[in-house]
Design a protein that fits this description.
about 425 residues, alpha/beta, Rossmann fold, 2 domains, six-stranded parallel β-sheet, four-stranded parallel β-sheet, 17 helices, 16 strands, globular, bacteriochlorophyll biosynthesis, oxidoreductase activity, acting on the CH-CH group of donors, iron-sulfur protein as acceptor, Protochl_reductN
Length: about 425
């Protein structure tokens, strides 16, 4: 199948069911769990409650005596009652942190539900602290509050706040945007280098000293489909977006790389020579993992904003049928190329009214349901096989070498169910 040939007209113009009810998602603070590992000289200081601290500690699995690159400035009762000057308190805590951790070059003040409810001006604090601690430390601010955001929007907000302070450049360069595990990022850079594309800049870079810059001759590609605010911020800096399907599976990775190769004048012969071997490995790995997926149905609850490209992968490369594809937000510029390829038929939904969507899932009885942790156990108790959506964010799943692992994440719940049924029959 041609990588850019829509199936049955695609879903880009399909009616979208827009729901605005109760949602079941993690808050944006969760993004710190992968961002603090990616940016090696950064620190994330959450201004929040003990609940925020417990969430991060348990989600990250960091031992209490470890030295992670995140922490919580806990709001006490006196802070919440307005009996203390929040700005003075923040200045003191930041000074103590930087004195103890001189390796910090970039400090993020991260807003939470409590800090936003009592309206602590963290943007003002970040501006003041940047002046105090410059040039050694750059202080930025973004919101990880779960009041209005889903958990992957934490990364979007973080990267978007970095864009205005990036250096300016007139060079024609490729900027790849979105946090990837280092091993996956290295694979991507190797593929691009073998095509003769470089230098390639990264956002986020592993260190603040890396020469990430942006300007009117910058073209950028996204590796994550939830970076709408970062996309807008880069366009405000004059950069130009390269729309493409996201690099999940053989087809998505090839289409993503092809968009960049076309932009930089890479010949078809060179492109084929660089991608042929990893494409063959990806196809073989997907075929092995997808044996139990072919002919099965899948239902996506909105969670991570990965739903649309993953539905494209499962339907076109693994032979599944999508019943419903829900996403917290649908951004036509970002999601459109994947919607073009997604075979017509599923209900496309944006936002969530969880009770109504649960009713639709129960009525459809899909073979596999992709949902959050809070919904998975109840649905499993009702006999529906589920996959935790958050696992798809924490696991390396991008590009060719991870394509088989991606398919395997979806096939394992069905294999497990088949084994349990066999054991029960015996």
């Amino acid at each position: 199948m041609n990588a850019l040939t829509p199936s049955n007209g695609g879903c880009r113009t399909a009616p979208v069911l827009k729901e605005r009810g109760q949602r079941e998602v993690f808050c944006g603070l969760t993004g710190i769990i992968w961002l603090h590992r990616k940016m090696q000289d950064a620190f994330f200081l959450v201004v929040g409650s003990r609940t925020c601290a417990h969430l991060l500690q348990s989600a990250a699995g960091v031992m209490i005596f470890a030295e992670p690159r995140f922490g919580t400035a806990i709001l006490e009762e006196t802070d919440l009652a307005g009996m203390k000057d929040a700005q003075v308190e923040i200045d003191r805590e930041v000074a103590r942190l930087l004195e103890r951790r001189p390796d910090i070059r970039q400090l993020f003040l991260v807003g939470s539900c409590p800090s936003e409810v009592i309206k602590i001006d963290l943007a003002k604090a970040a501006e003041r602290l940047s002046q105090i601690h410059a040039p050694h430390v750059r202080v930025l601010n973004y919101s990880g509050s779960g009041i209005e955001t889903t958990f992957t929007e934490g990364e979007d907000a973080c990267l978007a706040c970095m864009v205005p302070v990036l250096k300016s450049t007139a060079a024609r360069e490729l900027l790849v945007v979105g946090a990837l595990p280092d091993v996956v990022e290295d694979q991507m850079l190797s593929l691009l280098a073998d095509m003769g594309i470089g230098p390639v800049r990264l956002l986020p870079a592993r260190r603040i000293d890396d020469t990430t810059a942006v300007g009117p001759n910058t073209v950028f590609a996204l590796v994550q489909p939830f970076l709408g605010e970062t996309h807008a911020a880069l366009e405000r800096r004059g950069a130009r977006y390269l729309p493409a399907p996201f690099p999940f599976g053989d087809e998505g990775t090839t289409a993503w790389l092809r968009a960049i190769a076309t932009e930089f004048g890479v010949s078809e012969e060179t492109f084929d020579a660089v991608t042929a071997a990893p494409r063959a490995r990806a196809r073989k790995a997907i075929a092995q993992a997808a044996e139990v997926l072919r002919g099965k149905s899948v239902f996506f609850f909105p969670d991570s904003q990965l739903e649309i490209p993953l539905a494209r992968f499962l339907t076109r490369e693994c032979g599944m049928t999508a019943i419903e594809v829900g996403s917290p937000y649908i951004h036509d510029t970002l999601h459109g190329p994947d919607l073009d390829l997604l075979p017509a038929g599923p209900q496309i939904s944006e936002g969530q009214d969880v009770d109504k969507q649960l009713d639709r899932a129960r009525a459809a009885r899909p073979d596999l349901t992709i949902c959050g942790l809070g919904l998975a156990n109840p649905l499993e108790a009702e006999g529906l096989s589920t996959k935790w959506a958050i696992e798809l964010v924490f696991t390396p799943v991008h590009f060719y070498e991870q394509a088989g692992d991606l398919a395997g994440l979806f096939s394992r719940p069905l294999r497990r169910k088949a084994v349990l049924h066999l054991e029960a029959a015996e």
